[in-house]
């Protein structure tokens, strides 16, 4: 396990240059409208985000990809990728996710030799970050539950970092939150494990509206 | 359309609670309903021409509501350049569903330059109802698809809101054979759906989807102008999907607020994209 820990730490490092720190995924609209304006309101929102978006979209996508890879079913991975691209109706969030995924995919292919993906000649103009993450972890032989949990953690970590800058919150508050959410993340992994592809993509209308409204915000720190 | 014919062949005889299939064709500048089949609880009245060349069809349910284990299927095909407006005669009511969730599948096949405007009445789920609905669109790049959907907080004897078990509503748009727009609403009140990121303390959800090559930057600019005057009571956002078009999501506390917005957008699209007069789906 020691040999697996280091690549996982690298992948989850907040300095890993995926570009995710430029995106708030709709949170900035709530900050702008002062619905999220302190540690308490942010914490509640973060828990709601874990229970909804992270469980039914990002986390489930990561787990399904991992399952498909275990079954050597690359076609299913690309089919899932197509669903994820079609699912995001807010343009900025869709573009942001595309940029992050693309950057991760390019970088990970530089640092790890994914021979099995070399036969993929089709030009992909979209690859979801959850899919890249699962592909890398599968390659590194990191177990499924740890893969999903780590992916949820990196997503939450980015949001917390962004909240520290955006609301703003103190650095210590941010770190306390990352401890606070741990049981929620573990619970989410268990929930995700019991879901099926039918559950994929259940959207949260309020968050989606916020992601859409972000396009028209007059003052913005983040690209989405 | 061989693929489609074989799908229709397979669908009949599958013991649906209601099945409806119809095809619209364009003849000398006028669309006519050329082929129509229905069985079970579904029925189609004679098309009404609210517009001189575009029929409006009213989907009817003769039973008054959907009950446990019901399965419904609707398939509507628009051939080249056909234009049709589709609505329902009344709200889709789903009664208490103890054993098997009610399932409703609706498919649209839109050939080159066809235009389909689909505005069903709201979905009303009663106490303990479980409802699965899936709408699938197979469209050509030159076709136009407009769809407005409303989900209400349901109805219960006690007057309480959100007493249904769950509603799952999926929309899949295959654009030149590729899935380009997928929407999935899942509402399970017992898990808490009223708060932040979800219903935000509102009670009605409206979703409007437009996929059309005629939604240009110029039309979007005009849309933005009218959106600034949407009713204050509505909480809404809009964006552009991965294919030319427009998506609008609305939260409100009353159906008519959403209907008003739908009508304003529908009217704008008819005027700006087709240079047509607005259509009012007179029902009541």
From TrEMBL, chain A:
Q: Which Pfam families match?
A: UreF
Query: Keywords, A to Z?
Result: Chaperone, Cytoplasm, Nickel insertion
InterPro entries for the chain: UreF (IPR002639), UreF_sf (IPR038277)
One GO MF term on file is: nickel cation binding
* Family of the protein in this entry: Belongs to the UreF family.
What the protein does comes down to: Required for maturation of urease via the functional incorporation of the urease nickel metallocenter.
Instruction: Identify the gene encoding this protein.
Output: ureF
The protein's assembly and partners: UreD, UreF and UreG form a complex that acts as a GTP-hydrolysis-dependent molecular chaperone, activating the urease apoprotein by helping to assemble the nickel containing metallocenter of UreC. The UreE protein probably delivers the nickel.
GO CC terms on record? cytoplasm
Where is the protein found, in the record's own terms? Cytoplasm
Could you tell me what this protein is called?
A: Urease accessory protein UreF
Q: What is its main location?
A: cytoplasm
